[in-house]
Amino acid sequence: MPEKIMGVAWYYEQQWDKVRSYSKDRASMPKTFAEWLKSAQEAVQKWESAGITVHKVYVDVDMLVAWAKKHRLDIDGRTRSDYANHLLAMSFGVNKDV
Description:
Largest sheet: 2 strands, parallel
Number of domains: 1
Number of helices: 4
Radius of gyration: 14 Å
Oligomer: single chain
Structural class: alpha+beta
């Protein structure tokens, strides 16, 4: 059976306010980095307990914004997740699209 792998967007503390400012779904996002980090760590533990290999994919907000603009996407939870998995695929040499 193939290994289950997923990428999770992981943010730098100093960019948290910036990612929220660009996000269309900011009202539903944690207001502070500490709140986001706690919920993200809990989610990672849950997925790993389910047998999924989780890769924390550090996201530079300016690169996320450029990628979303190139693909004509609003920045929301789906786009942030897709971008993290795009970067993960690139790191495995699967996806060369930037």
